[in-house]
Amino acid sequence: MHRALADPSADGRPTVTRLHDLLAAALPLATLERVLDAGCGMGGTMLDLAARSSATFTGLTLSAQQADVGRRAIARAGLSQRVEILVRNYDRPPEQTFDAAIAVESLAHSPQPAASLRAIAARLAHGAWVAIVDDMPEPAARGSHDLAALQRGWRLPVLASAMELGEAFARCGLSLAADHDLTSDVRPRTLRRIATLERVNRLLRRLAPGSARHLLDSYHGGLALERLYRHGRMRYRLLVARKTTVA
Fold it and tell me: CA 40, CA 26: separation in Å to the nearest integer?
């Protein structure tokens, strides 16, 4: 599940559909025919965007369990003819050409985001669009305890900054078209609440069996992420680029 954002259509309450609204506004959805979702999870973003367009969607996930859940949801929505989920790495996209690619909180899980982006861009038609949404650290976050805790807890090999992704765009023949900073719509808990939950997390780690500790590590990483936002060391951004040259 991607980040919930403050939604003006819900009186400012955070919703997971707000990001879909922003993606639909950032991309020429009505003109797209084939869209790649690199790291689609259970397909929620594809289902939402497919309901707003006539495009076909191909999603990639490494999790067979996520794929099974997503395929059932696609069938229930009556969209099996236009939406599919493949179990494969987004470093090896299908051998077809796409008009757009989206990657929502997925490039952070790549050991080499620039290489992953290059593989995705190679499957794009000239003039195609790319939309990347992710947590992007500020320079002040580098070397911090919180960034290390986030990467350790969420098993993130590399967390690229907006500048690093922009440089990767250029090397892939992609021109940055828009940089939407969505940080003000993220709703982290207060620093006091984060500290309280960390104390509970430490206690549970002492009591929990070893098999459960990876879940507690993940939760601790999420708390570290919230503190990075509170200290202004993390930004949540939507980067939109267009393929203008051959990489």
Answer: 18
72: Cβ contacts below 8 Å, ≥ 6 apart: none
For CA atoms 221, 224, 229, 235, give the dihedral sign: negative
pLDDT, residue 210, reads 78
Interatomic CA distance for residues 146 and 223, integer angstroms: 9
Do the bridges between strand 234-243 and strand 124-137 make them parallel or antiparallel, or are there none, so unpaired?
A: antiparallel
What are the sequence ranges of the domains in the chain?
5-137+156-187+234-243
In three-state secondary structure terms, 238 is: strand
- Can you tell me the distance from the alpha carbon of 172 to that of 247, in angstroms, rounded to the nearest whole number? 5
Task: Provide the pLDDT for residue 246.
Answer: 63
Residue 106: which residues within 8 A CB-CB, separation 6 or more?
38, 39, 90, 134
Segment-wise mean pLDDT, segments of 10 residues, the chain, 247 residues = 90 95 96 97 96 97 96 97 96 95 95 95 96 97 97 94 95 96 97 97 88 88 98 98 82
CATH of domain 5-137+156-187+234-243: 3.40.50.150
